Amino acid sequence: MSTQDIPEENLPIEQDTAHGAVKVAEDPFADPGLPPHKPRIQDIDERAAKRSERAIAFMFALSMLATIGFIASYVIFPVDKIVYIWPFGRVSALNFALGLTLGAALFFIGAGAVHWARTLMSDVEVADERHPIEATPEVKAKVMADFAAGAAESGFGRRKLIRNTLFGALALVPLSGIVLLRDMGPLPEKKLRSTLWAKGKLLINMNTNEPLRPEDVAVGSLTFAKPEGLEEHDEHFQTEIAKAALMIVRIQPEDIKDKRELEWSHEGIVAYSKICTHVGCPISLYEQQTHHVLCPCHQSTFDLSDGARVIFGPAGHALPQLRIGVNDKGFLEAHGDFEEPVGPAFWERG
């Protein structure tokens, strides 16, 4: 290919025609530099700048309202409410409201910040040479000066409306995370202190689902009972039986060492909580000769002839006793609820 075939605009600056060689120009790809800066309308018209300021403040205000909506949704919508929303179909009203409001709160903060940067902050292009990683004192001074200049150019101190609404939006958004901590689990309130047992409730045999009579409980036998009215198909059966499960043992009255235990029994029939006071395992192992019951999980052992006190293992306190008697029809019944919480110790026990 000869030089005649090269377009004129692509020819190098100088040619050595004597020897047929081409001398390359010193800088064929010269830096064209930055294009001329074009001011925005906000830079030359204060009314346009005010409009942008109001728009940004409006976005921050919307973020605050969305955060308040997030908290309100958490309180208003029940966790099991299902609604139909097109095109999502049937969804949880609580989850949809929480996602929508939190997303809006974060979006409007971001949109306001972007609009602020594009319309009011300085948009002058600045070229900076690369420098060593270790900053020199001069560079540090320049960075601080640039920061101060940027802060001044942003109008952060002068435009109080934007500044105050931004502070408000940023202050409210973290409240969403604090509210979510409430969803770590329902507070136990007083639920752990009471069971379904109440005065006059019959003791129902867990195996036959029939009320118990004193003659149904033989000496040395272990029987499990539940409160009258609690059925396995009930929605909250597992929750309630975990607190109300009862074990019934018949001991010769003369073998009962604890005075209160004897008063709360009927003809040697004693009723104790089946829930171990260590970590809540169900107790099911009984020794007829010693009247000891053993928890199969960690081998905590209780003496049912002596107030169900702990004689071995990690359990911290005795099993709660239920006061029982016999009604007019000859069935065993409760004379009230347990006088102390059943199961392991918990933070509300004190």
Summarize the structure.
25% of the residues are buried. The protein is of the alpha+beta class. The protein is built from 7 helices and 15 strands.
Question: Would you write up a description of this structure?
Answer:
The model has no long low-confidence stretch (mean pLDDT 86). The strands form five sheets. This protein has a five-stranded antiparallel β-sheet with strand order 5-6-7-8-13. A hairpin with a 5-residue loop joins strand 11 (301-303) and strand 12. It contains seven helices and 15 strands. With 350 residues, it is an alpha+beta fold. Helix 2 runs parallel beside helix 5 and helix 3 (93-119) runs antiparallel to helix 5 (160-180). It is elongated and about 110 Å long. The longest helix has 31 residues, at 46-76.
Q: Outline, from the CA principal axes?
A: elongated
In spatial order, strands of the major sheet run 5-6-7-8-13
Mean pLDDT: 86
**Can you summarize the main beta sheet?**
5 strands, antiparallel
SS elements, strand count: 15
Q: Which class of secondary structure composition applies to the elements?
A: alpha+beta
The rounded Rg comes to 40 Å
How much of the sequence is in beta strands? 15-25%
- Low-pLDDT stretches are none
Quaternary organisation: single chain
Helix content: 25-40%
N-to-C series of helices and strands: EEHHEEHHHEEHEHEEEEEEEE
How many helices in DSSP terms? 7
In whole angstroms, how far apart are the ends?
Answer: 99 Å
